[in-house]
């Protein structure tokens, strides 16, 4: 592992801190078998963020802030998404097309997607639901409208002149369109499709951009997609990022790698993550018959892709679903299965694109009223596709969270387009890309038990029930199942069924206890890595009793020897959730009897 100071903005740094702390704690625990809350001294800074291993982003493309907020609470949080990426929030040129978002005219947080207050409320609601917000930031350029005009929020502007922000001298001198992508200077100093190219080498411009991004951080934003990063020298991007008020925010840069071009994604990996476009391109090739799924066994860096811990990956994004460089939702099962594979496969940080029907019109803006106001999104109406909510995709987020950092194991393939693999003792996927059913006995490293196949139905963590079919894993790790043509079967430790799971011998259990003073109307829950603790979903965690206030307590029976990571959360009257700060706590279920924990709330 490289020194963490060199690459401050990738998710791997955050994760590795948590992992090393967790490792230390686990060692302490193994030796003492009794935990107190004081063990974590050097915890990372307090934040409302849920614990460390989650890395899936839902991209709610062109959704209004009001609808993003609602979706965080109803769907993204419960599904376990770590981030929601929203479209550019700054003032932009007027017009009905989606791409007006990519033509800034000022840095006021007022756009067709909502005003500043709505944006702030959305960030706060999403964070309460355990979902951090990534803002798409357009900082390489301003508008492309040569005639000038008035922005969405009323700001007057001219091409190369944005009163109070930038004047002519703040733009690069090239002033013509990029024509030759093999010319580094031209790509970085001339105009991308007519968009006024900012002089990002200038101290003033860098400072002004950082002020905008810091404004978003002040509103609670915890990550940035940097649009058109390839069109700014990496040194310029690095300088801007070094000015951010919070060095732990997540950065993912749009640097499209292409054969024959001098500017490469690798130039930007020292700053943060970079979108790996070849990932989506390769998945299209493999899932449309250009290669066999069996060859995905080695999918990753050995295919010439970026190092896993620097790659932001997707099956499609808003550009590629319009230029068909990748699969799109029109590809049906191949698209769904590629997303399932992406979420199961331990490479990169995955983003699920969620768009709307375009009916073949490249420019078509998000569903809007007759007066041009973008309508709040409601899934499956008005053309909203809601890929983030498709059962197979939504449930694979839980699979990925349960799998955590476990490596792939027990790979199997039929030499063609039927594959299966596990993620250690946490999760197992069988994916059938062929036109005939797959019937076999699979070998896993999973503990024996009855699992919900989350491709065929949903697991209900409260009722501990499954609306789809179940799979019984035997003591030797095998299970037999039938996987229909062009479909998948997925099981994981976060979706095991009670009662049918072999009962823990000796009544093994943990008594969770935490001293926490709270205001009237608030309550404390324990949430953690196992199904019994809600698989990191606060709503599915275990409510503690206040009978011995200020110590809150509850007993949870779990299979003996299970290593659990957990945290306490405070729930206020209207359902808002506050996570305690610091690293995940760790405990191991005893062989029999009760392990009594006496923790102290970490504010
Ligand atoms: C619109 C109109 C234009 C008009 C312009 C200015 O379509 O005709 O000239 O406005 O008035 C988006 C849309 C554009 C839109 C623009 C501004 O896609 O159509 O232009 O907003 O409203 C390159 C860049 C890459 C960029 C892609 C699209 O390297 O950064 O082009 N992607 C991002 C966003 C886009 C966005 C912008 C940047 C601009 O994701 O959605 O544009 O903010 C090879 C190269 C790639 C190149 C690619 C396509 O693969 O390797 O580098 O990508 O070709 O040219
Ligand atoms: Ca530029």
Kindly describe this structure:
With 603 residues, this protein is an alpha/beta fold. The protein folds into three domains: 11-277 and 300-315, Alpha-Beta Barrel (TIM Barrel), CATH 3.20.20.80; 408-495, Golgi alpha-mannosidase II (Immunoglobulin-like, Sandwich); 509-600, Immunoglobulin-like, CATH 2.60.40. Helices cover 21% and strands 22% of the residues. It has ten helices and 30 strands. The strands form eight sheets. The chain has an eight-stranded parallel β-barrel with strand order 1-2-3-6-7-8-9-10, surrounded by five helices. Strands 21, 24, 25, 29 and 30 form a five-stranded mixed beta sheet that branches. Strands 22, 23, 26, 27 and 28 form a five-stranded antiparallel beta sheet that branches. Strand 6 (223-226), helix 6 (234-242) and strand 7 form a beta-alpha-beta unit. Helix 5 (203-218) packs across helix 6, helix 7 packs across helix 9 (333-344) and helix 9 packs parallel to helix 10. The longest helix has 22 residues, at 11-32. The protein is globular, with a radius of gyration of 25 Å. The protein starts with 10 loop residues before the first helix and ends with a strand.
């Amino acid at each position: 592992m490289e020194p963490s100071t060199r690459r401050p903005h990738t998710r791997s740094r955050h994760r590795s801190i948590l992992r090393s702390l967790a490792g230390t704690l686990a060692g302490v625990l193994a030796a003492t078998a009794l935990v107190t809350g004081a063990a974590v001294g050097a915890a990372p800074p307090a934040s409302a963020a849920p614990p460390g291993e989650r890395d899936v982003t839902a991209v709610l493309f062109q959704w209004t802030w009001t609808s993003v907020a609602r979706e965080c609470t109803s769907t993204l949080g419960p599904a376990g998404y770590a981030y929601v990426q929203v479209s550019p929030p700054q003032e932009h040129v007027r017009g009905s097309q989606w791409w007006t978002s990519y033509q800034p005219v000022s840095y006021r947080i007022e756009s067709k997607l909502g005003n500043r207050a709505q944006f702030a409320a959305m960030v706060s609601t999403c964070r309460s639901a355990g979902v951090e917000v990534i803002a798409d930031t357009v900082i390489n350029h301003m508008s492309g409208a040569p005639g000038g005009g008035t922005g969405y929020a009323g700001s007057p502007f001219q091409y190369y002149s944005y009163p109070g922000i930038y004047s002519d001298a703040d733009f690069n001198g090239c002033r013509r369109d990029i024509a030759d992508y093999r010319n580094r200077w031209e790509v970085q100093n001339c105009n991308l499709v007519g968009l006024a190219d900012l002089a990002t080498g200038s101290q003033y411009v860098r400072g002004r951009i950082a002020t905008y991004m810091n404004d978003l951080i002040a509103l609670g934003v915890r990550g940035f997609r940097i649009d058109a990063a390839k069109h700014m020298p990496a040194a310029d991007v690095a300088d801007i990022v070094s000015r951010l008020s919070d060095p732990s925010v997540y950065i993912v840069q749009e640097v499209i790698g292409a054969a024959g071009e001098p500017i490469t994604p690798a130039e930007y990996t020292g700053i943060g993550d970079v979108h790996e476009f070849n990932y989506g391109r390769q998945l299209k090739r493999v899932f449309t018959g250009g290669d066999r799924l069996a060859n995905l066994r080695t999918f990753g860096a050995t295919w010439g892709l970026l190092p896993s811990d620097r790659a932001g990956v997707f099956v499609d994004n808003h550009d590629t679903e319009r230029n068909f460089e990748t699969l799109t939702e029109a590809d049906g099962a191949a698209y769904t299965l590629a997303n399932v594979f992406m979420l199961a496969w331990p490479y990169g940080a995955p983003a699920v694109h969620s768009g709307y029907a375009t009916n073949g019109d490249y420019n078509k803006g998000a569903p809007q009223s007759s007066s041009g106001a973008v309508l709040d999104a409601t899934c499956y109406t008005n053309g909203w596709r809601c890929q983030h909510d498709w059962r197979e995709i939504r449930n694979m987020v839980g699979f990925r969270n349960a799998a955590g950092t476990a490596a792939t194991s027990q790979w199997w393939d039929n030499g063609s387009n039927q594959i299966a693999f596990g993620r250690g003792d946490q999760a197992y996927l069988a994916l059938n890309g062929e036109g005939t059913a797959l019937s076999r006995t699979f070998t896993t490293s999973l503990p024996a038990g009855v699992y919900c196949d989350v491709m065929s139905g949903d697991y209900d963590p409260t009722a501990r029930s499954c609306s789809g079919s179940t799979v019984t894993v035997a003591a030797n790790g095998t299970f037999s199942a039938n996987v229909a043509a062009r479909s998948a079967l997925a099981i994981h430790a976060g979706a095991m069924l009670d009662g049918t799971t072999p009962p823990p011998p000796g009544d093994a259990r943990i008594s969770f206890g935490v001293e926490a003073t709270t205001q009237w109307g608030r309550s404390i829950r324990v949430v953690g890595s196992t199904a019994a603790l809600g698989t990191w979903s606060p709503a599915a965690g275990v409510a503690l009793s206040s009978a011995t206030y200020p110590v809150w307590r509850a007993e949870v029976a779990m299979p003996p020897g299970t290593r659990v990571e957990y945290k306490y959360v405070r729930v206020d009257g209207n359902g808002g959730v506050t996570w305690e700060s610091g690293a995940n706590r760790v405990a191991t279920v005893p062989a029999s009897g009760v392990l009594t924990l006496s923790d102290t709330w970490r504010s």
